[in-house]
Amino acid sequence: MLSKAKIKLGIAPIAWTNDDLPELGSENTFEQCISEMALAGFKGSEVGNKYPKDPKELKKALDLRGVQICNAWFSCFFTTKPEEETIEAFMKHRDFLYEVGAKVIGCSEQGKSIQGLDKPICDEKPVFTDEEWEKLAKGMNKLAVLAAEKGMKVSLHHHMGTGVQTLAEVDRFMEMTNDEVYLLFDTGHMYFSEGNQDAVDAIIEKYADKIVHVHLKDVREDVLKTLKEEKWSFLKGVKEGIFTVPGDGIVSFDHTFRVLENINYEGWMVVEAEQDPAKANPLEYAMKARKFIAEKTGL
């Protein structure tokens, strides 16, 4: 079984209020969100757009509920903007996360990303040039050094609609960056990208020792099929329920949990399943996810 002493369970606020689609869950407050996280049995949270920007205020609200910040999304633009812009923004982000006690920073290269655009997500994803790959690798290596100054680790979040989405692109990224750049492993995004379980199992097998943060996300197979046929955008897919909590979709988590157990994984596993909260009650689905994880892992 996975170690209760080494693994902490968190959940992302994106199930309550969606940062990319603010109309989803606009009625849900920050206090409701973190209270329901705690009620469902989770000890960690990532950062949402309604969270207080002041570290002390945020930490006080979380401490009352026995919840802590474990990570927060950071957008890099190494491929499309001057390197200094990303580095300057990263240092502010790093310092905020340090103040609230996080040890990992999840980064996504958003240069040329179509995840927020009205474009068919499976047909028009960006492909980086060799020069853009070099800029990305060089930049991420620099972020790793900056994170280490605070005893933190940088991880790459492979994500639909970006230039680091597919299994082959993750391979290239990991080959080009140094040993201090890590991976945020996302079950749902890898299944969505490749359309099969083999890719999910392959990536965690191959990069087990480089994974410092895990997103547990499931995919609804029928919605994925329709998305591809009707050429939906990423955000259209989210609205229609492409993602759900682990145990409620097509993704198998058996191999993921087994590999994490075998490597004696230490860190956070975070349920991150953005849905329309009007269709998928966040507390209900948080509790469903918590029950599934307990049954599968003993955590």
Protein topology:
Blueprint: E1 7-11, H1 30-39, E2 44-46, H2 55-63, E3 68-71, E4 73-76, H3 83-99, E5 104-109, H4 130-148, E6 153-157, H5 167-176, E7 181-186, H6 187-194, H7 197-206, E8 211-216, E9 218-219, H8 221-230, H9 234-239, E10 243-244, H10 254-262, E11 267-271, H11 282-297
Parallel strand pairs: 1-2, 1-11, 2-3, 4-5, 5-6, 6-7, 7-8, 8-11
Antiparallel strand pairs: 9-10
Helix pairs in contact: 1-11, 3-4, 6-7, 7-10
Domain Xylose isomerase-like TIM barrel: 38-294
Organism: Marinisporobacter balticus
Catalytic activity: scyllo-inosose = 3D-3,5/4-trihydroxycyclohexane-1,2-dione + H2O
Q: Give the biggest sheet.
A: 9 strands, parallel
What topology, given as strand order, has the largest sheet? Answer: 3-2-1-11-8-7-6-5-4
CATH class category: Alpha Beta
Strand content: 15-25%
Low-confidence stretches: none
What is the SS-derived class?
Answer: alpha/beta
How many strands appear in the DSSP assignment?
11
CATH superfamily: Divalent-metal-dependent TIM barrel enzymes
Helix content: 40-55%
Tell me the CATH architecture: Alpha-Beta Barrel
From the 3D structure, determine the CATH topology. Answer: TIM Barrel
Shape: globular
Total count of domains = 1
What is the H/E string? EHEHEEHEHEHEHHEEHHEHEH
